[in-house]
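Standup notes
- DV: blocked on the single-chain target, sequence here:
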Amino acid sequence: MGLVEKRSVTLRGHRTSYSLEKPFYDDLVAIAASRNMPLAALVASIDEARPAGANLSSALRLYVLDWAKRTASGK
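- DV (later): unblocked, structure below
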């Protein structure tokens, strides 16, 4: 699948990082573009929705997976 790349983002005024494989990152960029929103805003919305203590990188991957499933099923 490819190497994991670490990226940084500011969430609620604090710098944090997440690690994603390139295909997941590319899909996040595509999702943000399709919603006409900055990538950082999409990551922030996913971060706000994740359960307390859940890993941000995992939450991002699960979001992309859910998006891919909904897109494939036409929902």
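- Follow-up: The chain has one domain: 20-73.
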